[in-house]
Design goal:
Structural class: alpha/beta
Largest sheet: 6 strands, mixed
Cofactor: [4Fe-4S] cluster; Mo-bis(molybdopterin guanine dinucleotide)
CATH topology of the largest domain: Rossmann fold
Number of strands: 33
Organism: Gordonia liuliyuniae
CATH architecture of the largest domain: 3-Layer(aba) Sandwich
Number of domains: 3
Strand order of the largest sheet: 6-5-18-17-16-7
CATH class of the largest domain: Alpha Beta
Bound molecules: ligand MGD, molybdenum atom
Helix content: 25-40%
Family: Belongs to the prokaryotic molybdopterin-containing oxidoreductase family.
Number of helices: 31
Protein name: FdhF/YdeP family oxidoreductase
Shape: globular
Domain Molybdopterin oxidoreductase: 120-497
Distance between the termini: 41 Å
Oligomer: single chain
Radius of gyration: 25 Å
């Protein structure tokens, strides 16, 4: 029944381009969700997965961090969630013969699509320094090897411990504990490349870096402003919440560079009218902005709000809220009233009437939610933009109010939880104090390396071991060429993983693959079957436990790997019962309860209710854990980053058939792309000005002061209704073009959606699944 792994890699030879869609989901999404499941899994596995995903007693969908309604529908998943669990749970295992046949050099020429489809890794694998092949190794030997190597380092800071939001709370807590017991804070994570700016922008304003809304606030909002987000692909179930807003008479405004189909019209597949009818119009206003213009836009809207207050004093702003809860209003007001309107128009590419219209909607709304994702966070001024979103919300008291709030929409299903558990290279002293107290050891205090700085340290030759708990850093991080050279400089790379990816073939001298069970699979330990937990984008902690048997008997859980490594590496550090943690995950939760606020009666509440909401001062009681105890208006200066003549600003984004570096397929249905990935979207007017024609083969060069151009060759240029002056192509291939130095101010996130490029006619097209980068 199960498809055989592909022998040949994909090529773009069959690529087709059609018109972009004008609506999202509906019947095709049901078909796209269920066909892979039915084609790849037997009926029993399909049913087990379909009826337990996102259910209180089932497992949390690993695709995104969107929240679950209080009462789940019998089928509580979207097309892309189903694609992700099918990808994980296809019971095909990569064989020893495969690794004997394919050298690492050979696999380095393959795409992520080809690597992932080979199947699940079924047993630990080891590549020796003098070999170009992986061969099987026992768990004991593998873990001894890691512990011996780590113990041999002169300084624990010569090791880097990456993780991605794929892992759940319990392993995340143990991971940071292990790493700190070993003696370093080098804990970079995928958040460094994702929503880092969200915390950096929100915490100074309200003291908390997480969403201030409840899941059902969407239904009560007068206005939802969706900024820099493509929910139809990346958070499809969010469309149900936006539908609630609209059905209840609220409005939705989309601020985006691209006219994403789901922002225009939605057909709910779980409602008859969604399947058969025209669906529901989504954006009441579509604000098509230039890449990087959002900070100027928010300031301009705020200026109009402040001018309206001058015309009708006391009538416009929420003075009760500002007087009782805020500080810094006067200097903020004076600064915003002085911004230059012409610069706003140049930076946003909007006309004054569009800004006026958005301001009017905000003025007329008593309850506004602003949501955002990577279209806001992966830019030079990401932190400033988020600070301005907070300022705008404070003006009308939109924090801690029904139907209102700031709502960053997280990516990975547990990326928020991992941070709550202490996976961060710069955890505050209060957390380290509690951790040290609970386990009787002294955690290191010096801040560790984030993702970009970890690569810089590798370049300098300062890193000997790179350990990765889930994820695919070498593909996810900027500047692919330099990233690969950096990783190759270390002595040992270790990947705790489910499936093959590029980080397993671009390695240090020695390399280990440690295969683990996935979310869909059950986890048996000495005291019986275990569950773990995840935190969603609105701070709800959910239980997650799989129901499928693991695809191979030689897999461990993430928790087991960590506990067994810890017993070898740090057996005498502090008072930590690693064996007890492995046997009974309730004990891990007891430890979490001791160290992290908000987890009182963790086990009791989990076993009784299967989940609970974490406390949040600003949301729950308008208490603000800032230095002043008040919400803080901040003064920020927006800078217009213009492209030089003949250049465009490039964003790198997700196609519909991928999850970050994982490829389920090769299409991007809503944008009209099928059977290929090497396309660059350009506005038709820009094509004319650049002397290019739709469909032509081109090379894309990125430009960075003082450095050689980086290039992706052999792309097909697609005339597309993106904002004029802006181009787009897919991540992770696009990382070849993002210079290491292009990062967001203040938070070091790669500016992977704001890079200056030049597009020139090209000649050669890639004839494999890897793009041409020289
Ligand atoms: N199926 C699926 N689901 C996923 C993922 C996946 O890969 N596949 N990834 C998960 C992860 S880790 C994350 S972080 C999220 C990502 O979710 P998204 O943030 O939706 O991800 P992107 O595909 O990068 O889309 C970015 C959007 O921002 C817009 N944009 C780009 N630059 C700007 C700008 O300057 N201003 C404005 N206003 N808009 C801009 C783009 O046009 C695009 O619509 O999704 C999560 N969910
Ligand atoms: N140019 C550009 N770069 C970007 C982005 C962009 O928009 N543009 N987006 C950034 C963002 S938002 C993010 S979050 C990062 C993503 O960076 P990562 O999180 O590092 O990448 P993923 O592709 O999500 O990682 C997928 C891998 O996780 C492993 N995995 C999957 N499930 C499990 C599991 O259950 N357990 C374990 N142990 N392993 C598992 C598998 O090996 C799989 O190949 O990329 C960032 N990079
Ligand atoms: Mo992300």
């Amino acid at each position: 029944m199960t498809r055989k792994p592909p022998v040949d890699d994909f090529t773009d030879a069959g690529l087709t381009v059609g018109p972009p869609a004008t609506w999202a989901v509906g019947l095709p999404a049901i078909e796209h969700a269920m066909l892979p499941a039915l084609g790849e899994l037997d009926p029993e596995r399909t049913a087990k997965v379909a009826f337990s995903i996102n259910h209180k007693k089932g497992f949390d969908c690993p695709s995104c961090a969107w929240a679950n309604p209080d009462k789940s529908k019998p089928l509580e998943f979207c097309e892309n969630g189903m694609k992700s669990v099918v990808w994980e749970s296809i019971p095909t295992v990569v064989t020893r013969d495969f690794f004997a046949e394919h050298s690492l050099t050979d696999m380095a020429d393959k795409s992520e699509y080809w690597l992932g489809l080979q199947g699940r890794i079924g047993e630990p694998m080891y590549k020796a320094a003098d070999s170009d092949h992986y061969r099987p190794i026992s768990w004991d030997d593998a873990l001894d090897l890691v512990a011996d190597k780590l113990r041999s380092l002169d300084d624990p800071n010569e090791a880097v411990f990456y993780t991605s939001g794929r892992i759940t709370n319990e392993p995340a807590f143990l991971y940071q504990l292990l790493v700190r017991a070993y003696g370093t804070n080098n804990l970079p994570d995928c958040s460094n490349m994702c929503h880092e700016a969200t915390g950096a922008g929100m915490v100074p304003a309200i003291g908390v870096g997480k969403s201030t809304i409840h899941f059902d606030d969407f239904a009560d909002a007068d206005l939802v402003i969706v900024m820099g987000q493509n929910p139809g692909t990346n958070h499809p179930r969010m469309l149900n919440s936006l539908q609630d807003t609209k059905v209840n008479g609220g409005q939705m405004v989309a601020v985006n560079v691209l006219p994403e189909a789901s922002l225009l019209r939605y057909k709910n597949p779980q409602k008859p009218v969604g399947v058969l009818g025209d669906g529901i119009a989504m954006a009441d206003q579509f604000v098509q902005i230039k890449i990087g213009g959002d900070m100027h836009l928010i300031q301009a809207v705020a200026k109009r709000v402040l001018l309206a207050e001058q015309v009708s004093p006391g009538q416009v702003l929420d003075w009760d809220f500002i007087n009782a809860h805020c500080t810094g209003f006067e200097s903020y007001r004076d600064h915003i009233l002085a911004i230059d309107d012409d610069e706003v128009l140049a930076a946003t590419g909007l006309d004054a009437a569009e800004i006026e219209e958005l301001a009017e909607r905000y003025l007329n709304s008593d309850a506004t939610i602003v949501t955002w994702a990577l279209g806001i966070t992966q830019h030079k001024q990401a932190v400033g933009t988020i600070a301005e979103i907070m300022n705008l919300l404070l003006l009308k008291g939109n924090i801690g109010k029904r139907g209102a709030g700031a709502s960053p929409i997280r990516g990975h299903s547990n990326v928020q939880g991992d941070r709550t558990m202490g996976v961060w290279e710069q955890m505050p002293a209060a957390f380290l104090d509690e951790l040290g107290k609970a386990f009787a050891f002294e955690p290191p205090r010096e801040h560790g390396l984030d993702s970009v700085n970890a690569m810089n340290a590798m370049d300098r030759g300062d890193i000997r071991v790179f350990f990765s708990m889930a994820g695919n850093l070498v593909a996810a991080i900027s500047d692919s060429g330099r990233a690969e050279a950096a990783i190759r400089s270390v002595d040992l790379t270790v990947s705790v993983t489910t499936k093959l990816n590029r980080s397993h073939v671009i390695t240090g001298a020695e390399s280990l693959l440690l295969p683990v069970i996935g979310r869909t699979e059950y986890d048996e330990q000495a005291t019986g079957r275990q569950v773990t937990t995840v935190e969603d984008t609105v701070c709800f902690v959910n239980q997650s436990g799989g129901e499928l048997p693991p695809v191979s008997p030689d897999l461990l859980s993430d928790v087991s790997v960590l506990c067994r490594l810890a017993q070898r590496l740090v057996p005498y550090v502090g008072d930590i019962d690693w064996a007890g943690f492995e046997a009974d995950y309730d004990r891990i939760r007891d430890a979490i309860e001791k160290v992290i606020p908000g987890f009182d009666d963790f086990n009791e509440r989990l076993h009784r209710d299967h989940g609970f909401l974490l406390p949040h001062g600003p949301r729950d009681s308008r208490t603000f854990p800032t230095a002043s105890g008040r919400a803080q208006f901040t003064v920020r200066t927006a800078e217009h980053v213009a492209a030089p003549a003949g250049r465009l600003i490039l964003q790198t984004m997700r196609a519909h058939d991928q999850h970050n570096t994982t490829m389920y397929g090769l299409g991007d249905r809503y944008r009209g792309i099928a059977a290929g990935r090497f396309v660059v979207f350009v506005n038709p007017d820009d094509l004319t000005e650049l002397g290019l024609s739709d469909g032509q083969t081109v090379d894309v060069f990125s430009e960075w002061p003082g450095e050689d151009d980086r290039v992706l060759r052999g792309y097909r240029v697609v005339a597309y209704p993106t904002k004029k002056g802006c181009a787009a192509l897919y991540f992770p291939e696009g990382n070849a073009l993002i210079p290491r130095g292009a990062v967001a101010d203040e938070c070091n996130t790669p500016a992977s959606k704001q890079v200056v490029v030049r597009i020139e006619p090209g000649a050669v097209r890639a004839d494999s699944g890897r793009p041409i980068t020289v």
